[in-house]
């Protein structure tokens, strides 16, 4: 009796991975076909295929939307499809796999070459590399954001050794890994394991030099292609091949991409940020609504990046001068991106995958806690439609906050800060500004965002 093996994996590894595995296992059982399915989900590899499993298998089904190690299946007939295909057409996949002919020894070499060519073609997609980084970014954002929000129950300035203070420390540590992880796994997608080290390093540099998550994305691509270039174009003598992946490529790729980040990528972005800050300072005391509009838009441009931080620092600085309006506008604008995405995922469920709707709920929690970074996974996945929507909603919230003469004496806390006595002025109108801004974001996202295709739905999941 012919046996089959399969691997399922979606970018987030939350639902589609296991839905595909269940569909394949259930259908194989109905067809009385022995089958073992390995899942590569968010919790890691489960039901792992052994060498014996693969050796005994007649064929392999790879229902994956992320990079998986295919080298262990070399010499076996392989069917590679999107994970959604396994959910909807498991029976057809199994029939196709059973119909495959076992590969002869003569075909082995040709098969290996074909697999390498296919693997190279798969890794040329900008979107695929970006989504690989996003898939690893999501758990970091969710864990860090929710722990940060929970820490606010201990007040804005809890005792240093208190439990809530430690929750804040853990949350900040997790969020501090966002950019390095994003850059690292973009580079990993491009160059495989040799790209991870330089990607993580340039991601950390982007965090430290003010480039933010946009710098991390650029740095991740640079690191990945530098590592791939070294890997493909600079062969070493066979006697030195052993040190290539652990010494030569990581060192050279990290050196080159790090220098590019320090002197080419970081410098212009830093200059741009300085110019923006000077421009912002020149607007102080001008039209209050225009200032709110500007600060609000800046809060959503890069969601925790240098532009966002410039606006935030501007508002915090004005608190010391007992000018509380800009801080209120800034916090309102910082809350609306994730809140707007939460609303969008609830009112237009057909435009989001199941995983995105679940991520939308987490974004809602982050939104009420003034953690703008909760919108980053959505922005990174569809930047040309989502970021303009976020900017528009935040600008409206900021302008309305200034128009309503709202004020805020504390620099953080979201809706929890509004509950602190005398911390906020014109609380009800301030809340209205936040609601209107979030609705503007939600409506624009719903209008601009396309319905996910089968592959895109799974990828963005």
Question: Would you kindly provide a written description of the structure presented here, covering whatever features stand out?
Answer:
- β2 and β3 form a beta hairpin.
- By secondary structure, this protein is an alpha/beta fold.
- The chain has helices at 16-30, 51-56, 83-88, 90-99, 105-122, 126-151, 163-176, 178-191, 196-209, 212-233, 244-282, 288-301, 306-319, 325-347, 354-368, 376-381, 383-403, 415-418, 427-448, 454-460, and strands at 4-9, 35-41, 44-46, 59-64, 78-81, 407-408, 424-425.
- The strands form two sheets. It has a five-stranded mixed beta sheet with strand order 3-2-1-4-5. Strands 6-7 form a two-stranded antiparallel sheet.
- It has three domains: 4-118, Rossmann fold (3-Layer(aba) Sandwich), CATH 3.40.50; 122-277, no CATH class; 285-448, no CATH class.
- Mean pLDDT is 78; it is low at 119-123 and 454-461.
- The protein is globular.
- The protein contains 20 helices and seven strands.
Helix and strand element order? EHEEHEEHHHHHHHHHHHHHHHEHEHH
Fraction of residues in helices? 55-70%
How many discrete structural domains? 3
Number of alpha- plus pi-helical segments: 20
Give the strand order of the largest sheet, numbering strands 1, 2, ... along the chain. Answer: 3-2-1-4-5
In terms of DSSP E residues, the strand content is 5-15%
């Amino acid at each position: 009796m012919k046996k089959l093996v399969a691997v399922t994996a979606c970018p987030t590894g939350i639902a589609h991975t296991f839905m595909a595995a269940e569909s394949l296992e259930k259908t194989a059982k109905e067809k009385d076909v022995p089958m073992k399915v390995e899942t590569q989900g968010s919790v890691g590899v489960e039901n792992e295929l052994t060498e014996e499993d693969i050796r005994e298998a007649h064929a392999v089904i790879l229902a994956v939307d992320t990079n998986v190690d295919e080298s262990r299946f070399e010499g076996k007939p392989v069917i590679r499809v999107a994970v959604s295909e396994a959910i909807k057409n498991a029976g057809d996949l199994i029939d196709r796999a059973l119909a495959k002919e076992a590969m002869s020894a003569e075909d082995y070499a040709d098969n290996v070459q074909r697999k390498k060519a296919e693997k190279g073609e798969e890794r040329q997609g900008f979107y695929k590399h970006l989504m690989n980084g996003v898939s690893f970014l999501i758990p970091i954002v969710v864990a860090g954001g929710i722990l940060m929000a929970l820490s606010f129950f201990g007040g804005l300035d809890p005792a240093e050794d208190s439990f809530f203070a430690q929750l804040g420390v853990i949350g900040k540590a997790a969020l501090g890994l966002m950019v390095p992880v994003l850059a690292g796994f973009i580079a990993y997608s491009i160059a495989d394991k040799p790209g991870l080290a330089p990607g993580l390093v340039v991601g950390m540099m982007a965090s430290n030099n003010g480039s933010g998550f946009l710098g991390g994305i650029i740095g991740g691509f640079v690191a990945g292609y530098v590592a791939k270039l070294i890997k493909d174009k600079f062969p070493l003598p066979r006697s030195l091949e052993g040190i290539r992946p652990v010494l030569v490529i990581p060192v050279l790729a990290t050196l080159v991409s790090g220098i590019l980040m320090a002197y080419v990528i970081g410098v212009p972005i830093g200059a741009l940020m300085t110019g923006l800050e000077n421009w912002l300072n020149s607007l102080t005391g001008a039209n209050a609504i225009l200032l709110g509009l500007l600060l609000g838009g800046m809060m959503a441009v890069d969601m925790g990046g240098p532009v966002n931080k410039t606006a935030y620092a501007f508002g915090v600085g004005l608190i010391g001068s007992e000018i509380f309006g800009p801080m209120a506008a800034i916090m309102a604008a910082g809350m609306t991106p994730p809140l707007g995405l939460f609303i969008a995922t609830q009112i237009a469920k057909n435009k989001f995958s199941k995983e995105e709707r679940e991520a939308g709920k987490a974004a809602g929690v982050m939104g009420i806690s003034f953690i703008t970074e909760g919108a980053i996974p959505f922005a990174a996945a569809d930047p040309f439609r989502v970021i303009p929507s976020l900017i528009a909603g935040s600008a409206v919230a900021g302008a309305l906050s200034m128009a309503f003469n709202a004020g805020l004496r504390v620099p953080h806390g979201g809706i929890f800060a509004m509950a602190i006595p005398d911390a906020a002025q014109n609380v009800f109108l301030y809340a209205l500004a936040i609601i209107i801004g979030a609705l503007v974001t939600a409506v624009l996202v719903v209008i601009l965002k396309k319905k996910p295709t089968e592959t895109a739905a799974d990828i963005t999941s």
